[in-house]
């Protein structure tokens, strides 16, 4: 591991406090995130651009946001979802899925969110919220860092280098801290907030692959009249779509894969075995 990136741990309050202050001062934090790792930074445009450049992708690529679990609904504008899609059912599904583990939802963005953390989809201004699930100790870091930074949300991205930089078809997220640190050794102020026991962290989320989260969209552009409205899996990641469907079905919600979603995301392979 790069000596400039000493390991700190997600279960140590002093380390969480250090990382939160560093993020507020502009550093990128690689944080233990359920059963893998994510990169988190302040939400301002220049910080998001720096995060993108660190990964080797376009500086202006739209970012995702992360927040403590109780703040998730406030990131969306619920007045802009389909009137045929009951808000209470979508909120209930959020509670179920975030209650179980890492997940992502995309929906109409709250007006206060900046343009660099939103994207337009067929006339709807959307944002995507990536969260580790309520059981993950990273929630304490996310809340502390947002408070230190004086904001109510942070920018987040997967802990990997862009395929545009590496030249391979896909670069799965890291689930080992030392390999992550090696890939991002060019960031002199990177703070690494690691799992104390990575194997134990993966065991907690046995039905989740240690890779980027599954992303479910609940906005429905005007003119689309599916009855009942269908929630769309924009990215088939750590949680299998069948598990998402099982959670949604008792709420009367249907789930299908987006037309352009191919195979489920791969898990990063390392030289040594998955132990």
TrEMBL record:
InterPro entries: DHBP_synth_RibB-like_a/b_dom, Sua5-like_dom. Coiled coil: none annotated. GO terms for molecular function: double-stranded RNA binding. PROSITE patterns: YRDC (PS51163). Residues 13-239 form the YrdC-like domain. This is tRNA A37 threonylcarbamoyladenosine synthetase subunit TsaC/SUA5/YrdC. It comes from Micromonospora avicenniae. The lineage of its organism: Bacteria, Bacillati, Actinomycetota, Actinomycetes, Micromonosporales.
């Amino acid at each position: 591991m790069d000596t400039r990136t000493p390991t700190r741990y997600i279960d140590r309050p002093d380390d969480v406090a250090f990382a939160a202050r560093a993020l507020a001062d502009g550093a990128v934090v690689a944080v233990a995130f359920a059963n893998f790792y994510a990169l988190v930074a302040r939400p301002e445009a220049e910080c998001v651009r720096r995060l993108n450049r660190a990964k080797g992708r376009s500086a202006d690529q739209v970012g995702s946001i992360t927040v403590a679990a109780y703040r998730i609904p406030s990131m969306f504008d619920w007045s802009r979802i389909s009137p045929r899609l009951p808000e209470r059912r979508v909120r209930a599904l959020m509670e179920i899925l975030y209650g179980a583990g890492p997940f992502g939802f995309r929906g109409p963005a709250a007006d206060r969110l900046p343009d660099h953390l939103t994207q337009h989809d067929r006339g709807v201004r959307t944002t995507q919220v990536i969260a580790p699930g309520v059981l993950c100790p990273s929630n304490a870091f996310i809340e502390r860092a947002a408070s230190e930074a004086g904001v109510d949300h942070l920018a987040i991205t997967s802990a990997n280098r862009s395929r545009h930089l590496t030249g391979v078809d896909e670069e799965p997220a890291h689930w080992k801290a030392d390999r992550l640190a090696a890939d991002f050794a060019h960031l002199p102020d990177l703070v690494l907030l690691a799992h104390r026991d990575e194997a134990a962290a993966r065991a907690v989320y046995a039905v989740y692959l240690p890779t980027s989260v599954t992303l479910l969209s609940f906005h429905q552009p005007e003119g689309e009249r599916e009855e009942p409205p269908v929630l769309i899996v924009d990215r088939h990641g750590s949680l299998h779509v069948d598990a998402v469907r099982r959670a949604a079905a008792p709420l009367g919600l249907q789930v299908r894969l987006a037309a352009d979603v191919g195979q489920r995301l791969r898990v990063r392979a390392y030289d040594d075995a998955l132990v």
